[in-house]
Amino acid sequence: MAPLDDPRLSPFTGWTRAHWAGLADRLLLAARRHTSPGRAHVSFPGRPGGYGPDVDALEGFARTFLAAGFRVAGERGADPLNLMEWYADGLAAGTDPHAPERWVRLDEHDQAKVEAASLALVLHLTRPWLWDRLSPLVQEQVVDYLTPAIGSWYPPINWVWFQIVVEQFLASVGGPYSADDIEAGLALTDGFARQDGWYADGDERAYDHYAGWALQFYPLIWTEMAAGSPDAESRRPVYLRRLERYLQDAVHLVGADGSPLIQGRSLTYRFAAAVPFWLGARYGLDSPAPGLLRRAASGIARHFVSHGAPGEDGLLTLGWHGPWRPIAQSYSGPGSPYWAAKGLFGLTLPADHPVWTAVEEPLPVERDDFQRVVAAPGWLVGGTRADGVVRVVNHGTDHSRPGSNLTDSPLYARLGYSTATSPLLAGPHAGRPLDQSVTLLSETGEPSHRTGFDTLGLERLPTGTVAGASRWRAHWVTPDEDVPDHGSGRSGEVRLGPWLEVLSVVRGAWEVRLVRVQPSEEAGRLRVGGWPLPADGPDPEPGSVVSNGKTCSGVWSAGLDDGGVTAADDASPLGLWTLVPWRATSGPARTDVWYDAAIHLGAGEPAEPPAVSWDGPSCLFTWPDGTSDALDPARLLRP
């Protein structure tokens, strides 16, 4: 799509609305090649997902339907690809209980509850051009298909919004619905709200891209569907305030190359991460400005398109850039990646909308280096202009609760995530923490886990340096492998070890990590793992520093007297190899003393790491840029 680039309007990405429309059309036309004769099933090639081919085919229809609906809604009904007629045929066949292509129903499989929300959403957005033109018989079939949502059980996470959206659509077309269901669902989702506009996905410390592409998205869509009702009118300003504040953090989480943060489950939805930026535009927020919102969204989409998603055949696969199935959850099938179509939501806005006509503005990481405390997920966020990388040091997210003692999910419980690295998601180290970790090693070399930790203090120092801390009981778990993998940690037989206290001080491309092991008879070797660097080969130089020719990752520590680099084969979607530098004690860790390690991810190998010294109870940090900080760890270690 390079010939469409407009460097005047979009000096950072080149992308305009024409690029987005072209991406949508390419996805939709490619999907037609995999559509059943009645157009109700879209069955993409590949191994069936854990829920079977019928669910996969329903996902293929419902998720590409999102792209079709956004495309036509933004053109105010103009439909040169005949999308509405195409999907109207599929609706008729899929909701006909006697048709050979009938869909799995909501009372037959829970996944149908998810896809029903996409059907309801698009039918709402395209009502004059689709719903109003369906025959009374097909309208009745659609209502009947959606009706099992009423009174049904939905998991108390983002799924609750699927029930609310479906029942609100039913209400809008004169179908059956339960006002009690909607009221109870809204009350439940109120409990997901956290500090500074963030939402948790349920009652756990589950913070990920769902905070934007689901938990910010559906509340405002619902207020459109329920416009005029007292509930919608009173809640809309609250939802808008939360979105506006959330976006102040979200724009800091996109790398200069457009990569979203590689953290949390469902990463195969790729450019769905653009959703919250389009929401800000659709609902007329003054801040962030339209040019910045489009810069973030277009950067994300261009990142994936330029890395081969969709592929040459126009299809999205299970993966991040190209195909890489380990990134998916056990239930994911070949239709699942098409939730990426949510990222096309900006196409609902017409070509003359300010988000399309404003000149792109730079992302925060393109303007200057920054450090930022994001309190709800417990993140210390930093970006460096020189390399465009955004890093998160994590002291608040594990998709669990304090004291749970589960295994660590590599997607949630690592100490660091970035826009340039991926945690080890496959192979032996996915379940045995190495990268971005602090672990105690058992007699057999098994690393401990941290899920269930306590988040302690988070603060910004006067110089702009940020700091945070967490504490946990080191534990070893023999996991129950029969538990389905939904991206979080696993339970199992647990052996408890010593308490660990970890404090991070972050500036620029550096984190200084202080670690203290509480007195215990069971303290083993202490190991600190650094950033997992994608690489072309398995042969790093000796030491605890690695480079892939563009980026350097390293761990420096005088007190941790052993070290090296571990090479992991096909362990992340970013490269054939991943190299993880680490430092460790050569024998059992000393207790009740502070170990320090300097951890780096940035362009080129640094000349010197930060200097760390002590003045009584205060730790003194001298950074490579000449800045100095003093911090008494006790100030952060209080719950």
Overall shape: it is: globular
- Provide the β-strand percentage band: 15-25%
- Largest beta sheet: what is the strand line-up? 6-7-8-9-16-13-12
What structural class do helix, strand and pairing data support? alpha+beta
Largest sheet: 7 strands, antiparallel
- The total count of helices amounts to 15
Mean pLDDT figure: 96
Detailed description of the structure:
The protein has helices at 17-32, 53-74, 83-95, 111-125, 136-146, 160-172, 179-190, 210-213, 217-225, 230-250, 275-282, 290-306, 354-357, 364-367, 633-637, and strands spanning 370-374, 379-384, 389-394, 416-418, 437-441, 454-460, 466-479, 492-507, 510-517, 525-529, 533-535, 545-547, 552-556, 562-572, 575-584, 594-602, 611-615, 618-622, 628-631. The strands form 4 sheets. Strands 6-7-8-9-16-13-12 form a 7-stranded antiparallel β-sheet. It is built from 15 helices and 19 strands. Helix content is 27%, strand content 20%.
List the SSEs and their pairings:
Elements: H1 17-32, H2 53-74, H3 83-95, H4 111-125, H5 136-146, H6 160-172, H7 179-190, H8 210-213, H9 217-225, H10 230-250, H11 275-282, H12 290-306, H13 354-357, H14 364-367, E1 370-374, E2 379-384, E3 389-394, E4 416-418, E5 437-441, E6 454-460, E7 466-479, E8 492-507, E9 510-517, E10 525-529, E11 533-535, E12 545-547, E13 552-556, E14 562-572, E15 575-584, E16 594-602, E17 611-615, E18 618-622, E19 628-631, H15 633-637
Antiparallel strand pairs: 1-2, 2-3, 3-4, 5-10, 6-7, 7-8, 8-9, 9-16, 10-15, 11-15, 12-13, 13-16, 14-15, 17-18, 18-19
Helix pairs in contact: 1-2, 2-3, 2-4, 4-6, 6-7, 6-9, 9-10, 10-11, 11-12
